[in-house]
Fold each of these.
Amino acid sequence: MMEPAHIRTYIDRLQKLSTIPGVLQRIMEITDDPGSSFEDLRNVISHDPSLAERVVRVANASCFGHSGCVGDIEQAVMFLGYEHIRDIALGMGVLQMLGVHQAKNLRGFWLHCYEVALISSMVAERITMLSTETAFLAGLLHDTGRLVFFNLAPGNCNVLYGTDDLMEREVGAFGCDHALAGSWLAEKAQLPAEHVAAIRYHHAPSQADEYHDLVSAIALSETLSRRFYPKIEDDGIWTSEHDAILLELGMSNDDVDDMRIRLGYEEYEAQRMLEAM
Ligand SMILES: [Fe+2]
Ligand SMILES: [Fe+2]
């Protein structure tokens, strides 16, 4: 069994952690600013060659089989639109942070993270003080602790399977669970404190002293993703805390069902995007 200190040392040694969030932050700002132009987005992307290459590749994969129809970043940005570019950039940023190269093994895991991000942004629409972008990013990053474990035990896909005893198994193998490991990673990456809290408490929202809205949104989305379209990678367990969050947000069964239908529309797009990544 590893010690928590081992996990912290591993995270401390990760390279690139302080630079990537800067690029992510800039892309979030541009996609969020109605006054920004395609040119602004193109500029940021073109400064990161691997991101630029991926954006063009994903745009071509979305051309309904007409490979090569998108030749440069500008066309890709026009073709994919702001929101998709943001999603690709964020997904790439996290992979780069961790230096994960086994993308194929991680597709189901990414789909889970992407679903939680989409649901989180829908939940945020109901919370006045919470921006949908903040919720989306926290949702996308909520399980990065599981990626830390996957990197520490390469090829052991068990760490990506969301069984009911996942957290106990993690503590048994790594000395801490993915929520704690993910929050250390988020701290090291200098993510905003609210994101650190959301990652830390996404399985125990009532333990958070601060950032109640964001923590609740992520915790609820984590469990809803498993309820809507269950996958082996889903790790949310429904408890009375989630009933309380639904009540607090004034969400009825019809509201929840509405989210499931909206997520269904996005699912196909997400699958296609992930295949190209
Ligand atoms: Fe989780
Ligand atoms: Fe999760």
Note: The domain at 4-276 is CATH 1.10.3210.10 (Hypothetical protein af1432).
Amino acid sequence: MMFDIINRKFILFGYPFGPHDFFLLGLTMIASIVFIFLFTAVFGRLFCGWVCPQTVFMEMVFRKIDYWVEGDHKNQRRLNESAWTGEKLFKKGTKYAIYFVISFLVSNMLLAWIIGVEALGKIVTDPVEMHLGGFIAMMLFTGLFYWIFIWFREQACILVCPYGRLQGVLLDPNSIVIAYDYLRGEPRGKIKKSERRSHGDCIDCKECVVVCPTGIDIRNGTQLECVNCTACIDACDYVMEKIDKPKGLIRFDSLNGIKEKRRKSFTSRVIGYSTLQVLLVALLSYFLATRSDVDVTILRTPGMFYQEQGDDKVSNLYDIKLLNKTFEPLEIDLKLHDNDDGELKLLGDKIVIPPQESAQAKMFVLLEKNEIKKMNTPIVIEVYSNGKEIHRIKSSFLGPVEKK
Ligand code: SF4
Ligand code: SF4
């Protein structure tokens, strides 16, 4: 994969795409948006907790470093509130140094996606002054990631991410979300020994609130800030186990699932999104399957009639337009299909199309007069790229028809 936005070069799964494939990009984006709508309508904000790189890095890498260096959240809070001692200095210094190294690696990875591994290798190995722009970009990205993971954190999900802000319109009561079973949990109340309990199962221990990275209380209902990390589910299950109650007071469920105790996945909205998604994917697959590395157009030069070439031959002039979609130069050859007596004469040098560029050429096609039986004779031209046949272009040949 490569997304070189600056030079407008894109590689997906090894296939090169350029500005001429813009409609494919547009179609892919529309299909992706419909997929996000569909996925969110069914599974809620599952993407945020388990796929989004921001959350994955935060929960699987940086939060683990916090725990490893500073201990659990109670120890972390204690350390933050304590005075600066040698131990605090050592722990904070270690943590921030590890953060910086990982941010630098993430920044290199992102740059490799944008400019390619070879170009990144040169920035890393050549003297700095040879790639000053690349070096500055690398440092800016490192600084950005460092700032995000050290300070900004979940604020990216709450304040910046457009997907998060769309939740209000994407979710409906049948979408699966992280939900608190208020029918089972309420009325909440502290557990007291030797007291007959008349409350619901929530003992108001607030463990679900303490572990929440975005600081919300899921018992107040689904909220924009919830990134579906499921930390509250784990915390509450642990509490339920301790007080000998069934797990799942907080769980993946829809609001209707909690209220009516049944889930409805195939709503009319989901069916509509699915149908649109299938159509878009089919269309995209068709365009991708029929896409070739070279676009060729061959047309008779406008305004030109046929030319007599001696007593026995007639020629037509053609315009050729070619587009090379690959990142390699291509040498193009043209031949007349199934016509040994006809001739094809290129005006000028051999056609070589530079990578990701277009080329134009002109050629004569000459046919024997006795081959021409009508005013407009169909011909087929074979197009070869680096010796391999890639296209057969149909065209027509104008010629004189002898009066009988
Ligand atoms: S962790 Fe469970 S029991 Fe404790 S406050 Fe949250 S919902 Fe209630
Ligand atoms: S409410 Fe639960 S799932 Fe949502 S962000 Fe907080 S801890 Fe994660």
Note: The longest helix spans residues 86-115.
